[in-house]
Structure formats: structure tokens, C-alpha cells
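forwarding from the other thread:

> can someone predict this with NDP?

sure thing
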Amino acid sequence: MGWALGIDAKTSDERNGGMRGRGIESYAPASGELLGEAPLTTAAEVKAAVERARVAQRAWAALPVEERCERLLRFRDALVERAEELVDLLSRETGKPKHEALGHELFALADLMTWYAKNAPRILAPREVPLHLLKHRRSVIHYVPRGVIGVIAPWNFPLIIPFADAFAALLTGSAVVIKPSEVTPLIALRTKDVWDKSGLPEDLLQIVVGYGDVGTALIDAGIQKVVFTGGVATGRKVAAACGERLIPCVLELGGKAPLIACSDADLERTAHAVVFGGFANSGQACISVERVFAHRDIYPKLVERTTALVKELRQGNGSAQTVDVGAIIFPKQIEIAERHVADALAKGALLKAGGKRRTGPGQFFEPTVLADCTPQMTVMTEEIFGPIVPMMAVDNDEQAIELANDSPLGLNAYVFSSDRERAAQIAARVEAGSVVINDVFSNYASPEAPFGGIKNSGYGRIHGEDALRDLAEVKHVSFDRFRPPARDPLWYPYTEKSYRWGLRALRAMFSGQGLIARMRELI
Ligand code: NDP
């Protein structure tokens, strides 16, 4: 391991990825304690890492997918074996409660690994596509490894995001190089240590550490695909860099999830869902509830119940005590939260709970409820990525849908109603990659289902069968079914007769009056 655990404590204000020597210092957001230093990777080292990964990948790709699955499950087993150590570091480096480090990251990661490893042989198996016209040919689709895949990850879920994407890419036979966020490098390095000790080839999965320039260097190092999770602005840069190099990328960007509470919603469940959806991970999730549109019939009661539940939340150092809401991972998010609250209050919102940063050690912002919000407030239009839930009353479902769709982002959306048909109709019209009815977050915890956004929330999907196949390269192999003649009738030389034959075939097959076309309709 090229990093050491630090022992001296520092205040949270001193945290910010401060530099010491050639490394990035990582501090605990909840206490200011220096946790360790991760060595910076230079651009030349990134290139060398990708080259080593490519060499390791050749032997890996030669293994049958079943064998890759079996070996990768050793990594899962080793993670589970060291669960408490990983949960502890994850909780300390992000400031999230241990419950969340365990449940939302390690448990969900182990489950995704298990599902993918069980199903990858079926999903990646060669597939025959029946040909409707060229019956003398046989087409088989193969899912072949791409080479080296780069995974660039944010700080809010620094275990599950990079390692779930990496695991899926590895199953397809590629090698992976991960660039974790500069804010949370230690958990990535510790997880890499688990990988190395589980007997898997060291060069097959590598970590490069640094700031945005290391991400740029990774994209530039000759990789075959990028899976990026992060903000919209960085996503645009990543897409442009990938476009320049003509490599594909998956972009998992920001969200502004609306929660539509219909007049017939179960009040108690909706209030609990707003609170969990808004404050889990201190609201630092791309699928957090960021806007509540509640029908006037239930709005006053929903605000009242939500506020009461929020006031019961215990906030504190989640690695040291049992708390519900942890710290803010990235200090800049506190300033963003303050700006949103000030703007909302200046424009007439009512502060029902919280509203300010907590005094004392650590980076904390109180769980905040803002009522009577309007679309003119930044808290309703820009991503919050912090523990604030803005609420607004609407007259009917139509208005709720209109307001929900009035956003450049479209990742997750939530609908609460006792009437499944009504909820399904709303879901059909809400512009989002996923719509969850009477629940929050459960779509991300379903590895079978595709996850990703529309509009500025990005493109491409992670999770599910199609995402796994997309991590591989698609190769179509076309065989002859019968011994072919020396010369195909459609080949050279072109003649007047063959042209006339082509015209007759076109009319017969595709014109409404054509004999073959009419016969096809009858069949
Ligand atoms: P950023 O976009 O700032 O960074 C994401 C990653 O990209 C980091 O590792 C970052 O490095 C790296 N990076 C920065 N600049 C470049 C560049 N020019 N080229 C390549 N890589 C670069 O996001 P945050 O870390 O701030 O994460 C928060 C964002 O992530 C939120 O907006 C949130 O919505 C989004 N997100 C989306 C999810 C989804 O699934 N759709 C899930 C979770 C978060 P460094 O940290 O060193 O700057």
C-alpha cells in the first residue's frame, strides 16, 4: 500500500484535499481528523497503468465468462470478510452513518456483484439473430471484451459507484482503471488492497489518484470506454474528450428528483419517504428527493408531518455514534446549501426546520425543510446535493407533472398515490430515466433494472442486462448455412437483366400491390 493512516487531527476547515508532499490528504468530514494521504498519480504513471492493465487483460479475456465470474466472486467474498474495516473507513472518510456505509454501499455492492456474476454467462452468451430475408445466412452476435475501461467516480458513494461499474466491466473481460474523487481516495485504495489480497491479477484493476487532470489523463491514455459519474459540467468535458478520441462513454450526471404527492397519497408513508429520500446520505445523492409537489388537499398535513419527522432526526458523527444524518462530505456543498436557503427565504419560503450550518467540529448542515416554495427559487431549479427538502402545493396532477418536467435534469422521479393506475399515468408523462411509485431509491438497489438519466442527467445506462452488454463490444459474425456458389447472383458483373430483376423484386416485395407483400400480410 502506497499510503499511510495519519494520526494527527485537524479542523474540518483545513480539509479540502490539501497537499502534502506528492499526496492528497483525506480528512474525516465529521471530525476533521486526518485519515491518511494518497499518493498522486502523474500523467505518465496513468499511461503506464493503462498499459499494464492491457497486458493483464489479454489473459483475463481468454478465460470463459463462467471462470471470470467465479474468480470475481472471490473479490466479493473478501469484501464481505473485511466488511467492518471497510464500513468504518467509508463512514469516516465520507462522514456518513455506518448504517448507510453498510446498507447503501457495501451491502448493495455485494448484492449487485452476486446478481451480475450469476447472470453474466447468460447475458453475455452469443446470441443468434434470425434473418428475415437472407435465409441462406446465419448471424450470431458475440459480446467481446473492449480492452481497458476507465471508471471516473464522485465522492458521494465512493465504494459502490466505482466498484459496481468496475465489477461489471471486469465480467465482460475488460481490465479497469478507476479514478476516484480527490475527496475520497482512501476507500478506493483500501478496496484495491482487498482486491490484491483476494488473489486476482493486480494489474487487472488499478486505481489512479488525483484531481480532474488525472481524469483527463486517463481518458487520454488509450482506454476503450469511460463510465463517468459526476456533475453536469464535468460530464460535458468528459463527453467532449471522449468524442475527440472516438471512444464511447456512459454519463451518470446530476438529478433534481421531483416527488409528486397526489391527493390520495398515504400521508404517513409519503412523509417518511420525503424524509428518507431527502436526507439519506445528507441529501448528497443524485436521486435524492429535491422537489416536493403535493396536492393542496394533503399539502398542509404533509408539511406538518414531514417537519415533525425531520425534527426527530439525530445528526452527528456516524462513525462514532448511532445517528440518522451524517456530515457533508465536500465543504463547498455547505456554501451551496446556505445560498439556496437564503435565496428561498428572500423570495418568501417558510423555514420549517433547520436552515443553517451547525456550529462546532465537523462539516454539518442541519436537515432543512422549506415550505411554500415557488419555481422562481434556486432551491427548486438547481441541484441542491445537500440536506434540504423544498415543498410546494399544486392544484392538480397536471400542474405537478408540468412543474416536475420543468427542469433540464431527468434522472429519478417519485409518485405517491393509492391509485396504481393514476400513478402509472403520471409516471408515463414524467420526464425521467426512472420513476418510482410509492417508494424512494429502490430502483438503484435493483441491479436487474437499467439506471441512468435523460436530458442533462446524461446518457447510457448502468445496471441491467443491456448495460452489461454495452460494456462489451458487439461483434456480429455471419455464417453461410449452405455451401455457397462460386459467384453470388448479386455480385459483379452488373447487367441490364439483373437490374430489371432487382426492380421486379422491389415491387413484388415492398409495394402494397406486390404479390409477395400481399402474401406476407395474409400470413
Ligand atoms: P465532479 O463532476 O466534480 O467529479 C466527478 C469525477 O470526475 C471526480 O473524480 C473528478 O475528480 C473527475 N474530474 C473532474 N474534472 C475532470 C475532467 N476534466 N476530466 C475527467 N475527470 C474529471 O462531481 P463530484 O465529485 O462533485 O460529484 C457530485 C456530482 O455527481 C453531483 O452533481 C451528482 O449529481 C453527480 N452524481 C451522479 C450520480 C448518477 O448516478 N447520475 C451518482 C452520484 C453523483 P476530482 O474529484 O479530483 O475533481
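Residues 152-156, 179, 181-183, 211-212, 215-216, 229-231, 234, 237-238, 252-255, 286, 383, 385, 411, 453 surround NDP (CB under 6 Å). thats all i got for now
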